[in-house]
Specification:
binds zinc ion, 3-stranded antiparallel β-sheet, globular, mainly beta, single chain, two-stranded antiparallel ribbon
Amino acid sequence: MSIYRKWFCSCRGKPVELTVVDQNEDQTGEATCPRCGASPSSDPKKTITYKDIEDWND
Ligand SMILES: [Zn+2]
C-alpha cells in the first residue's frame, strides 16, 4: 500500500485537481495551478488544498 497526495486549487470556485510536473532529477516536481499560478509552497490566496489517497493496489 502507498499513499499519494492529490493537490487541488479552488481559484475558480470549485477545486480542480493539479498535476505535478517533474522538473529535473534534483528537484521534486511541485503541483502548480495553470490558472492562477498557486502552488503548495506559494499560495497567497489560500486556494490550495490536498487530499491523501490510499492506494491498496501495490
Ligand atoms: Zn488556481
